[in-house]
Amino acid sequence: MSKNTALASVLACALSLSAGCEKQGEVSRFGGITESAGAASSGAAEAGGTGGGGNTGNSSLESRVKRLEDESAKNAEAMAFLNQVWGQQKAQQEQEQAQTPAPDAVFAIDITGDPVDGPASAPVTLVKAYDFDCPYCEMANAPLKQLVKDYNGKLRVVYKNFVVHPQSATTAHLGGCAAWEQKKFMEFKDAFWEKGFKAARQSKDRSKMGEENVLAIAKEVGLNVDKFKADMNGDKCKQLIERDMAELSKFGTNATPSFYINGQPYRSGLETAAFKVVIDQKLKEAEASGVPGKDYYQKVVIEKGEKKFRSIKDPKPS
Q1: Number of independent structural domains in the chain
Q2: What is the residue-wise DSSP string for 232-262?
């Protein structure tokens, strides 16, 4: 039996088996018109004979075999591409999960030396990781101020430096630290958002983010400018920023703004109503614990909280 005849026989068998899976006369998944089982058998008989008719049949079948081989090669390429895309998507999904904090985690974030808005006796502590050149950080400014007022002594907001735009924001962060040395961080922060960050965005004048304007803002809010400038350029403020960033990075912070309410990562909206859902829950927990508000963050969050980042993929520590 010649190679052509053998191929014809194999194809005829394949066609006779496939005829029951596809409706007669419809376009086949292989690209041709399906045959009935009888027609396929007839074609196989003709292909298996000798003479001119058989050669014609063999030629036709060889063409179909070639077409099948071509289709198979295309399918293999398509499957290889799909497998590559799927692999990339899976890797991306795993990376995102590895970077997403567990919703029940309580991270023991050290807040020593950081600016605070609200009383030390507050049972709920909201930590904000911020960058002075971040539009969403600015958007969160007013809601956080309002929340401190609304909770009337039961909430404090701690501001931790997380500089993601070092070329444009570092000077303002040093200024924030220097303002805190004179206990006027809140005044400086609010003024800088308006006359530094917003002014730079609206006028497209990036010098508004620079030292000259930062010093002008400091003077405007009543700071001792000589001391302010000295503190800005001193080691203490530089070390505070470095320490804040190292501490936040330890707990998986990789963007601004990021929030932690009594150590629990907050990933909802910037509206006061959204914050209040979690703050109210944390306030009930704190009040039910019996721990005085002034001691709650240290005794519960710092001493009992998790000392490193835990993602949604990681098991909860026992």
Answers
A1: 2
A2: HTSHHHHHHHHHHHHHHHHTT--SSSEEEET
CB < 8 Å & 24+ apart, contacts of 11-15: 11/44, 11/61, 11/64, 11/65, 11/68, 12/40, 12/41, 12/43, 12/44, 12/47, 12/48, 12/61, 13/44, 15/40, 15/43, 15/44
Residues 296 and 250 in one domain: yes
For strands 155-161 and 124-130, give the pairing: parallel
Q: Which of 45, 67, 99 is the last residue of a domain?
A: 99
> Cβ(40)–Cβ(15) under 8 Å?
yes
Containing structural domain, residue 42:
3-99
Report yes or no on 111 lying in a domain: no
pTM (2 d.p.): 0.73
In this prediction, residue 198 has a pLDDT band, given cuts at 50, 70 and 90, of very high
Task: Answer yes or no: is pLDDT of 90 > 90.
Answer: no
* H helix and E strand count, the chain: 13, 5
**Same domain? 143 vs 237:** yes
Separation of alpha carbons 154 and 147, rounded Å: 10
Residue 56 has a pLDDT of 63
Q: Which helix (H) or strand (E) holds 157?
A: strand 155-161
- Is the model more confident about 34 or about 130? 130
Instruction: For residue 70, count other CB atoms closer than 10 A to its CB.
Output: 11
CB atoms within 10 A of CB 195: 17
Q: What's the residue count for the chain?
A: 318
The kind and range of the H/E element at 138 are helix 135-151
On the question of pLDDT at 117 being above 60, the answer is: yes
Cβ-contact 162, 256 below 8 angstroms = yes
Model confidence at 287, pLDDT cuts 50, 70, 90, reads very high
How much is the pLDDT for 288? 98
Tens digits of residue pLDDT in 254-266: 999 999 999 999 9
